[in-house]
Input
Amino acid sequence: MKRIKISDAEWEIMKALWSNSTERGMTLGEIVRALDENNMWSYTTIRTLLVRLITKGAVTADRTTGVYRYSPALSKEECIANEVKSFVRRIFDNSPSQYIAALVRDGNLDEREKKEIKRILAEIVDKE
Output
């Protein structure tokens, strides 16, 4: 998977696409309506963010219907994995164990979250 850096604003666009996009994609107007009501971005700002995401390869644009329809080119899981890898590389010197240790020590995890982490770690160990 190619590394793509997505800004906080671009994440909002991606979330709207992941949550609301159909197989046909979404028009600019549909994306604007799907964004949070508190969002004060103009059509122009959202279009600029879409162009950036297209350039990065995170979004595709299809104009075969006469109007641009935007779709995510990457799944939410791919983008999250990419972001986590980048974060661990930058902040934890590429050490996932240091990252997990920081989450466990300082993360104020509730019992459900602790159980989920244990389940995931057990699953990883069982695969080896």
